[in-house]
């Protein structure tokens, strides 16, 4: 972190503001505090704020309303809500509607507060860079995300490779292919919101952890939307875990409701996952991976896409 980042803390209780400010004292960030939501709005209008962390229950205005206003004024600013347990439903609802990035429960844990703040800054950097992104920037951002999860190193470039072979085979335009390449690079960018402990979990994930992982499509799409990325890229991020039979996530859409670009990246992602080592198993041979893909024909995967994919993979192997 560096001092170019400003964090705005909003709480009607001054002592909360000073304790929170103290936690971030060693983190090389500029901390701005306000006990008034109306003043906070003026602060966001007059200076660049990377992250805003707001209490919810305040007499002047609810935190959720404040964060909604800030979203309009400064869409790149990462919004975090602090909330008491009693208010948890509001917080989760706000996350699902994309109004806030994360919530922190009161009383807070100091380390957790620092971790979430630092991830929120990373999210801000990601959005502001994506906004002006060229290919090199996008790839290096994707590699930053991969660093969080050592098992996926090199994954996004390989996914892009398979996705491009398939797109070319299907006769997609050069422009579409370029967007599919970008989408492949950052299809998992929502993982920036998934805690490292969950990403690197070696055992089976709990239901709650699984829910967090499943949110990465929506979080990522929200991020890409905020950065004004093209629709093709957004739909790759949002729909790359949907299944042909409707049993995927986040929406459970099926068949032709799933955009072609998402199906292309989905099969490329699956093939690369099967042929790479994972925390819970060793890599499969290409032949075994193809068998699994064939088993998913008409269940998880669109039969037309499977047939085309098998064709290009066999051609690539023979050529
Ligand atoms: Fe994913």
Protein model, in words:
The mean pLDDT is 88. The chain has helices at 14-23, 37-46, 63-73, 88-96, 110-131, 135-148, 155-169, 174-186, 196-199, 207-214, 216-226, 231-239, 260-274, 286-295, 303-318, and strands spanning 6-10, 30-34, 51-55, 78-84, 102-106. It has a five-stranded parallel beta sheet, sandwiched between helices. It folds into two domains: 6-127, Response regulator (Rossmann fold); 134-318, Hypothetical protein af1432, CATH 1.10.3210.10. By secondary structure, the chain is α/β, with parallel strands linked by helices. Helix 2 (37-46) runs parallel beside helix 3 (63-73) and helix 12 (231-239) packs across helix 13 (260-274). It binds fe (ii) ion. Residues 187-188, 216, 240-241 line the site of fe (ii) ion.
CATH architecture of the largest domain: Orthogonal Bundle
Strand content: 5-15%
Q: So, the CATH homologous superfamily of the largest domain?
A: Hypothetical protein af1432
Q: What is the chains' assembly state?
A: single chain
The topology string of helices and strands comes to: EHEHEHEHEHHHHHHHHHHH
Ligand names: fe (ii) ion
Basic shape: elongated
Number of helices: 15
| Helix residue percentage | 55-70%
Number of strands: 5
Structural class, from secondary structure content? alpha/beta
Distance between the termini: 48 Å
- State mean pLDDT (0 to 100 scale): 88
Q: C-alpha Rg, in Å? A: 21 Å
Largest sheet: 5 strands, parallel
Which strand order do you get reading across the main beta sheet?
A: 2-1-3-4-5
Uncertain stretches of 5 or more adjacent residues: none
